[in-house]
């Protein structure tokens, strides 16, 4: 049995509790997991006592909701933990210590590394690109990486995946729903402009803090088996992504294939080189934090976005910095009428503005705990919002607002759920009743 939702000053109580959770994460960064879990308990208790869940009332409704989310949660768990082990394999291979010999001198070397991360993210998962980039930065800067440069690593990975249907979960969702990769690829115009805007000041920051150190006389022994393991894990992830989406799309939403593929590769690799299992407890803590926020976001009463327009896409980019971009993207696909390149850049790159705004940011924060500060992230990464606005403006000026023609088959909605990590029911459970919230967002943007 459910009752009418509690509304305070026109805002549903669910959103107020979620906003308080995010504020708590920002103010109590050393207790971010405890704050997130407390927020989850409070939001769940409110929905148990008042509104219920989209999947039903009471504890059965909560259990059903979590079951609807299990694919995306399990995939994120597998990728974040698996790529943590991959990053250590890469670090121990010796390859990062060779890179200073090949990167340019001065601040251009730091900029070139960001470009490498950007390119890697186009065909790898942006989590993998972030952790590989963070590992390389540790080597070339001898563990002295500026906070602003950490922000730039995450932004480079998110920007690099924005125009590729393989580089980000949100663009993969678009691809599986029937949106052509060519309707997304022009996001790279915005992404490249953004890379220039944030990459140059970030590279200058890092060069002033600690420049690339060359030591051509040092003898570096490459552990080729470890490097081969890195390659095998990445090949397994990319191959699974492509094969499942091309050949088995009808069952892609029923099992976390991508996370499973990564872990099968890791377990097979144990016969060659033992993984750094000791890293998993620390990585699990950060991963549980992200998963908790994802579940909290999925319980928000969101069932409609503002009407598709360039301004609503711009706003969604800022919203994605604090609200999980997966349900936002799912709602946008269901609603239709968006310029998919602009939207892909907005929801993909927008999460770079805050460390927990994207899975790539959480992954890097597991590696560099000092990144788990909203204040430091915003202060040292001040150029990320500017890069977002600059990239968005450049794409809009050059291409305008170019939504595709309406789907004549009329069954786009039936294809939305065929995502590699998200069930159709997840989309429904993530979209509960957002009419009020979306109107408030637009009213705030006009005020």
What do these coordinates show?
- The protein has helices spanning 13-27, 32-51, 58-68, 70-92, 95-98, 107-121, 126-140, 147-161, 169-176, 187-209, 224-247, 257-269, 280-298, 310-319, 325-335, 340-349, 359-367, 374-380, 383-399, 412-415, 424-430, 435-446, and strands at 7-8, 11-12.
- Strands 1-2 form a two-stranded antiparallel ribbon.
- The model is unreliable at 408-447 (pLDDT under 50).
- Helix 1 packs antiparallel against helix 2, helix 7 runs antiparallel to helix 8 and helix 16 runs antiparallel to helix 19 (383-399).
- The protein is 65% helix and 1% strand.
- The chain has one domain (66-291, 301-446).
- The chain is mainly α and 447 residues long.
Give a topology summary.
Layout: E1 7-8, E2 11-12, H1 13-27, H2 32-51, H3 58-68, H4 70-92, H5 95-98, H6 107-121, H7 126-140, H8 147-161, H9 169-176, H10 187-209, H11 224-247, H12 257-269, H13 280-298, H14 310-319, H15 325-335, H16 340-349, H17 359-367, H18 374-380, H19 383-399, H20 412-415, H21 424-430, H22 435-446
Antiparallel strand pairs: 1-2
Pattern of helices and strands? EEHHHHHHHHHHHHHHHHHHHHHH
**Mean pLDDT figure:** 84
List unreliable stretches of 5+ residues.
Answer: 408-447
Q: Distance between the terminal alpha carbons, to the nearest Å?
A: 38 Å
The strand count comes to: 2
Write down the Rg. Answer: 21 Å
What oligomerization state is this entry in? single chain
β content, as a range? under 5%
Structural class: mainly alpha
């Amino acid at each position: 049995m459910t009752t009418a939702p509690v509304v305070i000053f026109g805002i549903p109580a669910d959103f107020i509790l979620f906003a308080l959770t995010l504020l708590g994460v920002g103010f109590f960064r050393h207790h971010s997991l405890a704050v997130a879990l407390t927020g989850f308990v409070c939001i769940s208790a409110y929905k148990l006592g008042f509104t219920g869940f989209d999947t039903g009332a009471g504890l059965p409704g909560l259990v059903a909701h979590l079951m609807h989310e299990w694919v995306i949660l399990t995939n994120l768990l597998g990728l974040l933990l698996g790529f943590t082990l991959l990053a250590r394999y890469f670090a121990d291979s010796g390859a990062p210590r060779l890179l200073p010999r090949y990167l340019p001198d001065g601040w251009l070397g730091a900029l070139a590394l960001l470009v490498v991360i950007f390119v890697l993210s186009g065909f790898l998962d942006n989590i993998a690109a972030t952790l590989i980039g963070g590992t390389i930065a540790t080597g070339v800067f001898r563990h002295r990486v500026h906070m602003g440069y950490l922000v730039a690593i995450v932004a480079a990975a998110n920007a690099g995946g924005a125009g590729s249907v393989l580089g980000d979960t949100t663009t993969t969702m678009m691809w599986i729903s029937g949106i052509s990769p060519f309707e997304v690829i022009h996001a790279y115009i915005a992404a490249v402009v953004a890379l220039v805007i944030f990459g140059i000041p970030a590279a200058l920051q890092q060069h002033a803090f600690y420049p690339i150190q060359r030591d051509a006389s040092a003898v570096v022994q490459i552990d080729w088996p470890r490097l081969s393991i890195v390659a095998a894990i990445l090949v397994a992830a990319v191959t699974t992504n492509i094969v499942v989406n091309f050949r088995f799309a009808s069952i892609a939403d029923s099992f976390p294939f991508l996370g499973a593929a990564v872990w099968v590769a890791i377990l097979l690799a144990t016969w060659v080189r033992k993984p750094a299992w000791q890293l998993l407890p620390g990585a699990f803590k950060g991963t549980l934090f992200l998963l908790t926020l994802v579940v909290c976001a999925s319980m928000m009463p969101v069932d409609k976005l503002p009407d598709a327009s360039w301004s609503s896409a711009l706003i969604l980019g800022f919203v994605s910095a604090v609200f999980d971009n997966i349900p936002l993207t799912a709602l946008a696909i269901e609603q239709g009428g968006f310029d998919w390149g602009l939207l892909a850049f907005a929801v993909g790159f927008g999460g770079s503005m805050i460390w927990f705004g994207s899975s790539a940011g959480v992954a890097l924060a597991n590696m560099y705990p000092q990144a788990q500060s909203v204040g430091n992230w915003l202060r040292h990464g001040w150029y990320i919002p500017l890069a977002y606005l600059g990239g968005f403006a450049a794409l809009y000026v050059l291409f305008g607002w170019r939504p595709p023609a309406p789907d004549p088959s009329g069954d786009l909605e039936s294809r939305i759920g065929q995502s590699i990590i998200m069930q159709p029911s997840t989309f429904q459970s993530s979209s509960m009743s957002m009419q009020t919230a979306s109107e408030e967002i637009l009213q705030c943007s006009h005020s």
